[in-house]
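Moderator note: this is an archived Q&A kept for reference. The question asked for a predicted structure of one protein chain; the sequence and the answer are reproduced below.
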Amino acid sequence: MILLRRLLGDVLRRQRQRQGRTLREVSAAARVSLGYLSEVERGQKEASSELLSAICDALDVRMSEVMREVSDELALAELASGESGRPVLVEPVTVPAPPGGDRVSALMPKAPAMDVVAA
């Protein structure tokens, strides 16, 4: 099962890390507790629209950009899980930016684990 809160948390964490900022800096700017922001980034808590807006403001990023990245990752995860009929682990990768553009993050399926059969 694909959890939206985990995808959202991953996107928010990458945005923060791209800026070289700490949880403490962003939590203070967003006026949210450090622990709660950490739980949102780890996908353990659902962010309300008000909280998401405050975090995006603190990161100086448009909420639509965050949601677009989440939507793209969700679509890729759905495609990946639909191919085999079961969820597939995905890992974020950074795609080089086109001239004059920003880097793009995407999810790529991990290589499937091999089944071990006892002889």
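Archived answer notes: The chain has one domain: 4-87.
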